[in-house]
Amino acid sequence: MTTVFIIGVFIFVIVFVLSLITISKGYKYDHTIDPIPDQQKKDSPSS
């Protein structure tokens, strides 16, 4: 019974640590948006 409890706690700790690592990587990810190259041509008045 004690062995099952220790294995369960060990698995819980591994899953918990991996979850924290994944969340940390998600917050560190830098989201960027590419500019639309034709947007400046459409906004400027044509002569």
From TrEMBL:
Keywords: Membrane, Transmembrane, Transmembrane helix. It comes from the Bacteria. The chain crosses the membrane at residues 6-23. InterPro entries: YtzI-like. This is YtzI protein. It comes from Pontibacillus litoralis JSM 072002.
